[in-house]
Amino acid sequence: MASTITFIGAGNMAGAIIGGMIESGFSPDDVIATSPSDDVLAPLRERLGIRTETDNATAVAQSDVVVLAVKPQIMREVCEQMREAVQARRPLIVSVAAGLPAEILEAWLGGALPLVRCMPNTPALVGAGAAGLFANDRVDEAQRRLATELMEAVGLVEWVEDEALLDAVTAVSGSAPAYFFLMFEAMEEAGVTLGLPADTARRLAMQTALGAAKMALASDQPPAELKRNVMSPGGTTERAIAHLEQAELRRIMAEAMTACADRAAEMADELGQR
Fold it and tell me: Which residues contribute to the annotated binding site for NADP(+)?
């Protein structure tokens, strides 16, 4: 039997996941999106053919899965307003809100609920996301599979068994698109210095990153071996890699990612106290 899935919030991430779900075979009739404003809902309803609702409790009362897709800063208010409906229905809760621990979300919703926390990233908006998922002890195997299907609609899914590891997921994938955008920015600037037009340098850098990622995903060799395969002794790539190693790129990345994970943990504490 099909599950009815409600998205509380109809912003960009919710829209991306819903679009991926419909494209991968979910029926629009089984999907509900909510927002206080029908002006926000109308484009999703018209584009994807899903059901929409301006009252969260009404939508929850029909749902087997409730996806929390509102900003963390308003999550407590939203959860508490629909607590009674959630407790009456007891659906699977899936949160895509950054920084809010499962225990806190569950408490705001009245407790004793199956809950999955998801750390997605923005490439989900183009169907190329990467998400880390954590399930509490009340999530059964069928619910775990359904949560996987939802997020695989917009990219890769990896489960972690310790919720604290979602901070590491934030460092490795959640925040990481910005690392690559910075790299593109730096490569474009260097390309211009070397004489290329800015748009040419930008396109070459981006396409090269796309190609490198596709090669790495398609290969059974580790990145270190793929790197060596490109490096001819005494050649241009070897010279560039040697310079990056001497500049301690590995240390810089490790420190940046540790700072990211530390901030994720701090934000969880801050948001949970609101």
Answer: 8-13, 35, 69-72
